[in-house]
Amino acid sequence: MKNRINNLIKIKDNILSIYFTAGYPQLNDTVNVIKKLEENGADLIEIGVPFSDPVADGPTIQYSNTVAIENGMTVKLLFEQLKNIREAVDIPLIMMSSLNPIVQYGFENFCKKCKEIGVDGLIIPDLPIEEYIENYKEMVEASGLRNIILVTPASTDERVRLVDEHTDGFIYMVSSSSTTGENKNFATDFEDFADRLLAMKLKNPLITGFGIKDKNSFDQVCKFSKGGIIGSAFVKSLAETKDIGENITKFMDQFA
């Protein structure tokens, strides 16, 4: 069953995916951020479910998680905010969350709610591929969702192939082993890893995240993969002024 992620990948190269934390900087900014991102050229949006101990995130996203939780953001409230989102935007939406908040909500209920609202996929960085296959894959696929799985330079070829076998959408290629926004050797680390993955001739395309902060780094990863994901740099830009729309337009202008 095709969904918006598959359709996007089929027709578009240089896919620009933007991550933000729901409920940041203000509790009710979520829908406005999504709408403004689509208006300003984002191809794909990752909606971060705030959690007190996010996996692999650098200080910027950790801070946005803390603020969002203090603002009162919960999974239940996020679904409420997004209930009419498909009346406003057409591009693919992915929920990115640690496993804990999803399990607390109820994994199957979470998937069903995503389907009901029109969310297209999940990214759960701390869900091991083996546990996903054994306990959760059936529920995800029953709701027509794509589970996007991360691979890192530390991933063995065997694990990469296992991910490729159990993914239908794209593989989230982590550009280096550092946390988001922290890699000092981005170019060398990324290109070595990309060469390795491309040589494996995987069935799923790669979209790269971690360390992409501007047009130059985005263009660099697009030479080796289907697109790039920007998180920390965008989240940081949201709080530059009190005008969210102005901040988003200013940030996205570099990609126009």
What's the quick description here?
The chain has twelve helices and nine strands.
Describe this structure in words.
With 256 residues, the chain is α/β, with parallel strands linked by helices. The chain has helices at 4-11, 30-39, 59-71, 75-82, 99-105, 107-117, 129-142, 157-165, 186-199, 215-222, 232-238, 244-252; strands at residues 15-21, 44-48, 93-96, 121-123, 146-148, 150-151, 171-174, 206-209, 227-230. The protein has a 9-stranded parallel β-sheet with strand order 5-4-3-2-1-9-8-7-6. α2 (30-39) packs parallel to α12 (244-252). The longest helix has 14 residues, at 129-142. The two termini are 32 Å apart. The model has no long low-confidence stretch (mean pLDDT 93).
Percent helix among the residues?
40-55%
**Contiguous runs where pLDDT drops below 50 for at least 5 residues:** none
| Strand proportion | 5-15%
How many strand elements?
9
Order of adjacent strands in the largest pleated sheet: 5-4-3-2-1-9-8-7-6
Shape: globular
Helices and strands: which structural class? alpha/beta
Pattern of helices and strands: HEHEHHEHHEHEEHEHEHEHH
The largest β sheet comes out as:
9 strands, parallel
Write down the Rg: 17 Å
Mean pLDDT: 93
Compute the number of helices: 12
For the termini, the CA-CA separation is: 32 Å
